[in-house]
Amino acid sequence: MNAPVNPKKLIKGATGDWEIVIGMEIHAQVTSQAKLFSGASTAFGGDPNSHVSLVDAAMPGMLPVINEECVRQAIRTGLGLKAQINLKSTFDRKNYFYPDLPQGYQISQYKSPIVGEGEVIVDVPESGETITVRIERLHLEQDAGKSIHDLHPTMSFVDLNRSGVALMEIVSKPDLRSSDEARAYVTKLRTILRYLGTCDGDMDKGNLRADVNVSVRRPGEEFGTRCEIKNVNSIRFIGQAIEYEARRQIGILEDGGVIEQETRLYDPGKGETRSMRSKEEAHDYRYFPDPDLLPLEFDQAYVDELAQHLPELPDEKKARFMGDYGLSAYDASVLVAERASADFFEEVAKGRDGKAAANWIINELFGRLNKEGKDISSSPVSAAQLGAIVDLIGENVISGKIAKDLFEIVFTEGGDPREIVEKRGMKQVTDTGAIEAACDAVIAANPEKVEQAKAKPTLLGWFVGQVMKQTGGKANPQAVNELLKAKLGIE
Ligand code: ADP
Ligand code: MG
Fold it and tell me: Which ranges carry the Asn/Gln amidotransferase domain (predicted)?
């Protein structure tokens, strides 16, 4: 708790430095066909109230039946978070009234969750640091329905399609110290969930949302009182909400005020948080064990079986990319951030120079896709095509410069890179006679530069550029270099 504080993370107030403390509760919708306690579909976008069983509508006498697939997914997620898996856990009723909660309570896990303590390793791009964020718990619970107030001037509507869908609530310890760290944490957690296939992480659809707990303190002092910002549904907004909220709290404290523990909402339009209600306490919900559900029990063999079939996760993949392909930590983490880009990379890199493959994907392909607003799964250049381009450079058939032109042609027009090179005469000129002629022409046309180059060998680059221009970029740059050095008498 008294670890030295990186001064870059501190916020300067009027009366000195402040440190932000953040802990997050992430609600992640479980990827499953059916809801947590009913057989109704979890499909997104159906007509209102078209995916609602009698259980989800809380008709009298209906009983919940646990969906084994949701349990399996929660265990797999726990394993992915290197967390303690509890072989016995229980379901509780969290009682409150809301029109979109027909049961009058949410079935959740309170005292004994299915997953206990774990951790997430997070690379923070802005600070260059790698931090470990401790996970406190992961529990299963039902989602609520949706109240709709803006369809009619005097009436409200309720859509229960979401009612009863399984959520995993993943609670972190208050280990985050900046908005950058918070954003990187959610991004990494989402990557892990997507690799596991346990949540699609689609924040636009509300399938992943964050309750962000923020407090501030003087560096090294006790934690301050937190405010909880509910249901933030984009990573950018998480960062903005934290920045605003921390400064709001600092302002109050520096004016001699105190922070009231409360629940707040972030308004992205105004860029501010506002109070929603004073903080409810656990006892307000009158939690008690749900008498309709037996404790959830399974054996270690079941957990071990799931552990054995876990896919390779981003941290392992990153380590393997660094070891097997000689990639830098940065390149490796960029590539493993999405499973699709990691797979794409491996297809290009197989049997080729891994670093060259990574460079092309990160520097050329990602940049170009970004410009078109596309992602790797809809890339107009396939891994096979990009592989062929890398081969053509490796075989000295084309120069790196021509390769960029070739890449652009393949990106916009498609086609077999080898055929394109052949047909459009893009092959590198390795015939020294032709290159020599171009060198001689440049030298003859620039006698005063030739004189200067004798005293200033760095001018060689200028000559190389001129010869490349003359040959339409097709001269082999190494041959040009060597010939020019000899002709200009540069060592
Ligand atoms: P609740 O349901 O009351 O919000 P939880 O225990 O589920 O309580 O979640 C508390 C969250 O608040 C955790 O993510 C925790 O890390 C975070 N937290 C606790 N104390 C602080 C604090 N002083 N500042 C910021 N975050 C905090
Ligand atoms: Mg909370």
Answer: 343-488
Mean pLDDT across 337-341 = 95
Q: What is the pLDDT of residues 346-405, one digit of tens each?
A: 999 999 999 999 999 999 999 999 999 999 999 999 999 999 999 999 998 998 888 999
pLDDT tens track for 405-437:
999 999 999 999 999 999 988 887 777 788 888
CB atoms within 10 A of CB 86: 22
Label residue 162 exposed, middle or buried (CB < 10 Å: 0-12, 13-18, 19+).
buried
Helix (H) or strand (E) holding 388: helix 383-394
pLDDT at 282: 75
Give CA separation, 101 vs 61, 109, 168, 393, 490, in Å.
17, 17, 18, 62, 82
> Using alpha carbons only, what angle is made at residue 110 by residues 106 and 113, rounded to the nearest 5 degrees?
110
Element (H, E) at 332: helix 329-336
Rounded distance between C-alpha atoms, residue 435 and residue 336, angstroms: 43
Buried b (16+ CB within 10 A) or exposed e, 64-82: bebbeebbbbbbbbbbbbe
Question: Which atom of ligand 1 is least distant from the CA of 171?
Answer: 14
User: Residue 3 — very low, low, confident or very high, per pLDDT cuts 50/70/90?
Assistant: low
> Residues near 163 by Cβ (< 8 Å), separated by ≥ 6?
52, 56, 57, 100, 101, 102, 142, 143, 144, 145
23 in contact with ligand 1, CB cutoff 6 A: yes
Q: Tell me, what's the pLDDT at 482? A: 86
Q: Report the CATH number of the 432-488 domain.
A: 1.10.10.410
Threshold 0.90, pTM exceeds: no
SS3 labels along 77-143: HHHHCCCCECCEECCEEEECCCCCCCCCEEEECCCCCCECCEEEEEEECCCCEEEEEEEEEEEEEEC
* 249 Cβ inside 6 Å of ligand 1: no
User: Is any ligand 1 atom within 6 A of the Cβ of residue 108?
Assistant: no
The residue to which tokens 């109050």 are assigned: 252
Nearest-angstrom CA–CA distance, 384 and 183: 34
Q: 55 with 64: CB under 8 angstroms? A: yes
Three-state secondary structure call for residue 325: helix
Going from N- to C-terminal start, the domains of the chain cover: 7-306, 312-423, 432-488
DSSP state of 41: B
Which residues share a beta bridge with 8?
none
Instruction: Report the mean per-residue pLDDT for the chain.
Output: 94
Binding site membership of 24 for ligand 1 (Cβ less than 6 Å)? yes
Q: Are 426 and 473 in contact (CB under 8 A)?
A: no
Minimum CA distance residue for ligand 1 atom 11: 23
Query: How many Å apart are CA 248 and CA 57, to the nearest integer?
Result: 41
pLDDT at 126 over 80: yes
- pLDDT of residue 1 exceeding 50, the answer is no
| H/E segment holding residue 193 | helix 179-196
pLDDT of residue 278: 82
